Amino acid sequence: MPLSPFDHDRRYGELDQVVRAYLGQPADDTPDEPSKALTAYLRHTWHTRPWALATAERQLREYAENPPGRLRLRLGEFYAIPDVGLPEGEIQQWLRCLADHIRHSVEQGEVPAPSAPATHWEWHARFPELAQLLGGWFSQDMPDEFDDHDAALDDYRAGSDTQLTARLVGEVHELLALDLDEFDYALALAELGMEVDPPVPFSPSGWLALVVRRFTGSRPQGDP
């Protein structure tokens, strides 16, 4: 039978996180140089869950050494590596290469320098609640669902726990602290799921600052 969620996470959970970091990125790791995708995974995981790196190294190496055989494939009791653009015959060596880089990073204490997110995965891993707001309320359908940007923000706020809105405010503060130029802020909003422009006359960073002000003020009377 297919893996239960518990067994999946115990055996492949962190392996899955590593592989997902390659969404839209080439798997061009070499023994001498980790890819942009793996560097992004290392940077974020060192900052948020450093203990998970050892688990990632173990799960990558175990999968490379013991790929699923025919019986497990037939029963569905395995983790299917998503397509990363490599021939099937190169996947095992690639997984070993990733495990080697992660082990080296941990043993040598080599942590990627802080920076703005470099990949789609890293943007969403670092700013999950902002991605929830932008992708859920500011898609291309927003003009058909809400009168304006403020109405969309009010709808998010009305249906979200105050702890989530506080987390959102913290993420926006962190994004603004990156001190990007306006072009890069526009790219960041797009990476996080926003498919409409900020309202006139706001720049991307100016609108983000407005979001902070709206969510740190008191709720209108009658709001939950």
> Distance between the terminal alpha carbons, to the nearest Å?
44 Å
Shape type: elongated
Largest sheet: none
- Provide the helix percentage: 55-70%
- Strand content range: under 5%
Poorly predicted runs of 5 or more residues: 218-224
* SSE succession: HHHHHHHHHHHH
**Radius of gyration, CA atoms, in whole angstroms:** 21 Å
Question: Helix/strand-derived class?
Answer: mainly alpha
Number of helices: 12
Q: What's the overall average pLDDT, rounded? A: 91
For the record, the count of structural domains works out to 2
Number of strands: 0
Strands, helices and their partners?
Elements: H1 5-20, H2 36-48, H3 52-65, H4 70-75, H5 91-108, H6 120-126, H7 128-137, H8 142-145, H9 149-159, H10 162-177, H11 182-191, H12 204-216
Helix pairs in contact: 1-3, 2-6, 3-5, 7-10, 10-12
Structural notes for this entry:
The chain is an all-alpha fold and 224 residues long. It folds into two domains: 104 residues, no CATH class; 90 residues, no CATH class. The chain is 62% helix and 0% strand. The chain starts with a helix and ends in an 8-residue tail after the last helix. The relative contact order is 0.11.
Key attributes of the depicted protein:
single chain; 224 residues; mainly alpha; 12 helices; 62% helix; elongated
